[in-house]
Write a structure and sequence with these properties.
six-stranded antiparallel β-sheet, mainly beta, Glyco_hydro_32_C, Glyco_hydro_32, globular, binds beta-D-fructofuranose
C-alpha cells in the first residue's frame, strides 16, 4: 500500500483529497451514520461548495462515498441538515432522507445584493446514496437578510411540526413547517445575548435531560469572536416551547474552548443519545494549513450531556463510547508523582503519536504534560492553578509560519469545583482533544510537528500526584 501522507489522521474523518469544511446533514438511518460535509472537489482551498458524503457504522471508521449534492443554477450548496421523513410529510416517499440546505448564489453576492442565500431541499429514496433536488426550490426565500443560512431541521414532537433553526446574521430565527416545504416564522432569539464578535452560523437545537428535567440546548457557532480567536461554538441552555427559545440566563458558554472546533452540530435520529461532531479547524488559517492532498479533518464524535455546577447548567462533551472500537492495549501506571521533570515514555510503552492518554488525580495542581520528538519539538498542555485554566501550547510543536493567526497558546477556564479530576486526551497525527472534568471543559487543537510526538514527560514545579495514568494506542486497522 502507498505510504500514509504526513498528518493523515488515523481515526478522524478526512476526505481522500481536496478541501473540506463544516459537517452537514448528519443523520443516523438503519445502522449507518451519515456525514455530509462542505466540500470543494477541485481544489485545496474553499471554492464552489458541494456536499461530500461519508458513512460509518460507528462514527469512527468512515467510508467516503460519492458526492451527494452539486452546485446548480441556484448556486453553491452551503451548510444544512438532513432528516428521515418517516411519515412522508413532504410527499417524496416514506422514509425519504431529506436534506435542507442553503443555496448560496455567488452572482447575487458579487452584484452586491443582500438576498443571495435561500433554503432548499433535496431528497434521497435509497437511504442517502443518490439525491434529487426538489423542483420548486427554494422553499424559504431570503427576506432581505445578507447572512441567512445553515438550517438545522428536526421534528418537534410536542408541537407535531418540523422546526428549523436558522442563522440570520446576528441572531437565530425559528421557523415551523408541517411538510418541510412551507415554512412559517416562529420567533427570533439572541440579538442582544451571547457572543457577537462575528456572524452567527450553523445553529442546532435539541433537548437533553438533567435529573429528570428536560432542557433545550441552542448551539450557535460564531466566526470570528471565539475565546481563543476566530471560529468557535457557543451554546445557550433554556426552554423551547415550539415557538420561542428562552435561555436560563445570558451567560456566554462554549462547547469547546480550543482554537480548532467549529461548525459543530449534532446527529438527527439517534434516540436518546445526542452525538456531536465539529470541523477541526478555524477560518483564521484553515485555507493555509500544511496538509496535502486534502485540507481539514472532523473532530472525534462526542456525546453531549448536561451538568450543574453551583447554579449554572453546562453542556458536557465526552468522547463517544464508539471510540473504544479502535483501542489497542492499555498500559497503566499507578501513583506517579511529578515534581522534577519525569519521563514516562518507556514506562507507558509510548511509541505512537495516535493514542489516548488519561490522567487522574485526586488533588489537581499546576502541571505540564510535554509531548515531544527527537527534533526538540514540544506540545505542552496542562493546568495552571493560579489562573484556574487548562491550556494547550503549540508554539513549539512544529510548523506554524503558514499563518500569523495560528495562535500558539490557548486557554480554557476550569469550570469544575471538584478537588480532583480526570483528563482524557485524544492524540492523532495532527491534533489533540482535551476532555477535562468529565467533559465540562473541552479543548481541540491542531498542530503540525515535523516528526511524530511520541515522548511523554510531566513537569510540575509545585508537585502533583496522579493516582493513575494510562496510555492506549488507537488504530482503525483491523486487529491482527
Ligand atoms: C461555516 C460556513 C457556513 C456556510 C459554509 C460555507 O463555516 O461559513 O455558514 O454555510 O461555511 O462553506
Amino acid at each position: 500500500p502507498p505510504a500514509t501522507p504526513q498528518y493523515r489522521p488515523a481515526y478522524h474523518f478526512t476526505p481522500a483529497a481536496h478541501w473540506m469544511n463544516d459537517p452537514n446533514g448528519m443523520v443516523y438511518y438503519q445502522g449507518t451514520y451519515h456525514l455530509f460535509f462542505q466540500y470543494y472537489p477541485k481544489g485545496m482551498v474553499w471554492g464552489p461548495m458541494h456536499w461530500g458524503h461519508a458513512t460509518s457504522p460507528d462514527m469512527v471508521r468512515w467510508q467516503e462515498q460519492p458526492i451527494a449534492l452539486y452546485p446548480d443554477s441556484l448556486g453553491y450548496i452551503f451548510s444544512g441538515s438532513a432528516v428521515v421523513d418517516a411519515n412522508n410529510t413532504a410527499g417524496f416517499g416514506k422514509n425519504a432522507m431529506v436534506a435542507i440546505f442553503t443555496h448560496h448564489d455567488p452572482k447575487g453576492e458579487k452584484a452586491g445584493t443582500s438576498t443571495y442565500q435561500h433554503q432548499s431541499l433535496a431528497y434521497s429514496l435509497d437511504g442517502g446514496k443518490t439525491w434529487q433536488k426538489y423542483a420548486q426550490n427554494p422553499v424559504l426565500k431570503n427576506p432581505g437578510i445578507k447572512d441567512f443560512r445553515d438550517p438545522k431541521v428536526s421534528w418537534h414532537a410536542p408541537s407535531k411540526q418540523w422546526v428549523m433553526t436558522l442563522a440570520t446574521l446576528d441572531r437565530i430565527t425559528f421557523y415551523s413547517s408541517p411538510n418541510l416545504k412551507d415554512w412559517t416564522k416562529l420567533s427570533e432569539f439572541g440579538e442582544k445575548l451571547g457572543a457577537h464578535g462575528g456572524v452567527w452560523e450553523c445553529p442546532d437545537l435539541f433537548p437533553l435531560t438533567l435529573n429528570g428535567k428536560t432542557y433545550w440546548v441552542l448551539i450557535v457557532n460564531l466566526n470570528p469572536g471565539g475565546p481563543n480567536s476566530g471560529s468557535a461554538t457557543q451554546y445557550f441552555v433554556g426552554q423551547f416551547d415550539g415557538k420561542t427559545f428562552t435561555p436560563l440566563n445570558d451567560k456566554t458558554k462554549w462547547a469547546d474552548y480550543g482554537p480548532d472546533e467549529y461548525a459543530g452540530v449534532t446527529w438527527n435520529n439517534t434516540g436518546n443519545r445526542r452525538l456531536f461532531l465539529g470541523w477541526m479547524s478555524n477560518w483564521e488559517y484553515a485555507n493555509q494549513v500544511p496538509t496535502s492532498p486534502w485540507r481539514s479533518a472532523m473532530t472525534t464524535p462526542r456525546e453531549l450531556g448536561l451538568r450543574q455546577v453551583g447554579s449554572e447548567i453546562y453542556l458536557t462533551s465526552q468522547p463517544a463510547a464508539e471510540l473504544r472500537n479502535i483501542t489497542g492495549k492499555t498500559t497503566t501506571l499507578q501513583n506517579v508523582t511529578a515534581k522534577e521533570p519525569t519521563d514516562l515514555t518507556a514506562r507507558l510503552n509510548s511509541s505512537t503519536d495516535k493514542h489516548r492518554l488519561t490522567l487522574s488525580t485526586n488533588q489537581l495542581a499546576s502541571f505540564e504534560l510535554v509531548m515531544s520528538n527527537a527534533a526538540g519539538e514540544e506540545l505542552v498542555l496542562g493546568y495552571d492553578q493560579a489562573a484556574n485554566q487548562y491550556f494547550i501550547d503549540r508554539s513549539k510543536a512544529g510548523k506554524n509560519s503558514f499563518s500569523p493567526k495560528f495562535v500558539g497558546r490557548a486557554v480554557a477556564p476550569r469550570l469544575s469545583t471538584a478537588v480532583g479530576t480526570e483528563l482524557t486526551l485524544y492524540f492523532d497525527a495532527a491534533s489533540v482533544e482535551l476532555f477535562a472534568d468529565q467533559g465540562l471543559t473541552v479543548m481541540t487543537s491542531i498542530f503540525f510537528a515535523n516528526k511524530p510526538l511520541t515522548a511523554i514527560k510531566l513537569r510540575s514545579a509545585e508537585g502533583i500526584t496522579f493516582q493513575q495514568i494510562s496510555s492506549t494506542p488507537l488504530t482503525t486497522e483491523a486487529a491482527s
